[in-house]
Specification:
mainly alpha; 3 domains; two-stranded antiparallel ribbon; 22 helices; 53% helix; 3% strand; membrane; transmembrane; DUF6350
Length: 610
């Protein structure tokens, strides 16, 4: 019962949509009949004209016969004319299409029952078209049933497309079941990545829709620019017709109905293939060849050929597609996909865009009058193929450029290449051990202050100095960026800083370093990772103050009272004092090593001659 109610509601809505389209045509026609012709024409003829134009918008061709007198009054040769008018006013078509899309999307929200809404809409729209074809029988070349089927298919295809898109987005049970069956069939054929196909298909449709919208947008901008530059010609053509206000309004509405055709023709012009207005004519960015044209003001915007500069038109499509490819390459679906999958998605999206352009070009092709005006519009397959190549080329370049990761390329290159490895490139642990090849020589003279200053200038470690030295108690303190740069390997490593007597003075053998504080259980905890390591016991002397154990400070173990700052922490004595918590007992002579039992655990620089 619910399905039947949905179908009835959809049929009523489709009838309203069809009547709305007919009303758009009937209102100006009735105004002309009443005001301009004073009801001189027969009502049946007016009804035939109105319904005939509406059916023409749904791709039902019309047939016209013009007598010799009528042809002479129109400025043509005084002979009878019989011709077919098949170029559909796509502006009226869009009314039915957009309302059908809205209906299909809404009925898809009802789940599987909404499918009856699509069927009911087709039936209701076809019924109105059947009645309209009866009124337009003197003009249409097809039978009434053929005309009704043509109009109903326009509404039905649009409604069904919207229904399927929302069903896939919302994950209807019947849709997911169909997808599972399709995946099983694909896996049966040997395709291993079948599980990823739904997400990749969705990304393909997004990319194709974005590329198609981009192409149509560029064409619309090009048409607007042509109207702005050719406004004088358009105005001159409109004034030459000498129409009354009602006629001018009708002409304006006719040109609005033909506006989508102008956009499609602009796509063909931008692609470089161009279009024709009459047999033997050609309008492309490179040259323009025209014959006699209908007295339609909008044809005054036709541009002249640009010669060699016409290559800028297709080039604009390529560049725009390139930018779009770069943007889509940064999306998770394409960024995580493998290179073959990303390239296949891009190529298929470009092919889908080409098919859509070919279909639109076919719909925007038809007859405008007798003789040479029987052929108008672009070559559908040629235009679609060229657009697919241009858009596909731009998308491929953009996707490749967007997926290119310079950081990964640098990481894959050997560290020996200068400038490729990062400033913080890790050195092998064996090279950092004392005595290992590439490690600092124990007997070498190191100017630590110069080394740290150079490391800071290179930007190796951007933390504050206080934080850096507070981490010095951890075993990995020498693995920070400051000691991984080339600053320690410079010539400053060979200075005389470690040849002074200060390094072996009694300052490092005082009781302060043999205190029981280092023999407590806290020595085995994370206390060395806390701020306790920066207490007053290990306070660094201020820059320029006397260092303990030197001539300026004869008292061993004396420390400065000044609080260390960022510059003070780079002083040589501060660095030496920070890393000397396991110095020998003060009771042992300076030139003798304490017994193994008296040594304290921890790291220290190798002594001279060890």
């Amino acid at each position: 019962m619910r399905s039947l109610v949905t179908a009835v509601i959809a049929a009523i809505e489709a009838v309203a949509v069809a009547l709305a389209g007919i009303a758009v045509v009937a209102i100006p026609a009735v105004l002309i009949w009443v005001i301009t012709f004073g009801l001189a024409a027969e009502p049946a003829a007016v009804a035939a004209d109105v319904t005939g134009v509406w059916l023409l918008a749904h791709f039902v061709p019309l047939h016209f016969s013009v007598s010799a007198e009528a042809a002479l009054s129109l400025g043509l040769a005084p002979e009878a004319l019989d011709f077919t008018l098949s170029l559909a006013p796509l502006g009226i078509t869009l009314i039915s299409v957009l309302l059908a899309l809205r209906a299909g999307w809404r009925f898809a929200g009802r789940g599987g029952v909404g499918a009856m809404g699509v069927i009911g809409g087709i039936v209701g729209f076809g019924a109105v078209a059947l009645v309209a074809s009866v009124f337009a029988a003197p003009l249409i070349e097809w039978t009434a049933m053929q005309a009704a089927l043509s109009a109903a298919s326009v509404y039905g295809v649009a409604s069904a497309a919207a229904f399927l898109v929302r069903a896939g987005r919302d994950g209807h049970p019947w849709w997911e079941g169909s997808v599972r069956q399709a995946l099983r069939a694909i896996e049966y054929l040997g395709v291993r990545s079948g599980a990823a196909l739904p997400s990749r298909a969705a990304e393909l449709l997004r990319l194709a829709a974005a590329a198609l919208a981009l192409v149509l947008g560029i064409a619309a901008v090009a048409f607007a620019v042509a109207v702005a530059t050719g406004y004088a010609d358009v105005t001159a053509l409109a004034q030459s017709l000498q129409l009354d206000p009602i006629g001018s309004l009708t002409l304006f509405l006719v040109q609005v109905a033909l506006m989508p055709i102008a956009i499609v023709w602009s796509v063909a012009w931008m692609s470089g293939t161009g279009f024709a207005i009459g047999a033997g004519s050609s309008v492309t960015p490179f040259e323009t060849l025209l014959g006699p044209l209908p007295a339609l003001p909008m044809l005054g915007v036709l541009p002249d050929g640009w010669g060699e500069r016409g290559a800028f038109a297709p080039g604009a499509l390529v560049v725009a597609a390139l930018v779009l490819g770069v943007l889509f390459a940064r999306r998770p679906a394409l960024r995580r996909a493998s290179w073959p999958a990303a390239l296949v998605i891009t190529v298929l999206a470009a092919a889908l865009v080409g098919l859509c352009v070919a279909g639109a070009s076919a719909l925007a092709t038809g007859s405008l009058g007798p003789d040479r005006l029987a052929s108008n519009g672009p070559d559908a397959w040629l235009t679609g193929g060229v657009v697919a190549l241009e858009v596909g080329g731009g998308l491929l370049i953009g996707v490749i450029a967007g997926r290119f990761d310079a950081a990964k390329v640098r990481a894959a290159m050997p560290d020996a290449i200068p400038g490729i490895g990062g400033v913080r490139g890790a050195r092998p642990a064996a090279a950092e051990a004392p005595g290992a090849p590439g490690a600092p020589d124990a007997d070498a003279d190191v100017n630590f202050e110069a080394a740290v200053d150079e490391a800071l200038e290179l930007g190796a470690d951007r933390r504050s100095a206080a934080t850096r030295w507070s981490d010095a108690g951890r075993p990995d303190a020498f693995e920070t960026g400051a000691f991984e740069t080339g600053a320690v390997d410079t010539e400053a490593h060979d200075t005389d800083a470690f040849d002074t007597d200060a390094f072996e003075t009694d300052a490092f053998e005082t009781d302060a370093h043999d205190a029981g504080a280092f023999e407590t259980d806290a020595h085995d905890t994370g206390a060395f990772d806390t701020e306790s390591f920066e207490t007053e016991e290990l306070a660094r002397p201020a820059r320029g103050s006397a260092r303990p154990g030197t001539a300026a400070d004869p008292k061993p173990g004396a420390t400065a009272d000044a609080t260390p700052g960022a510059d003070e922490l780079t002083d040589e004595a501060a660095l030496l004092q920070a890393y000397a918590w396991d110095a020998e007992s003060p009771t042992a002579p300076a030139d003798e090593e304490p017994p193994e039992t008296e040594r304290r655990p921890g790291w220290r620089w190798p002594g001279r001659g060890r």
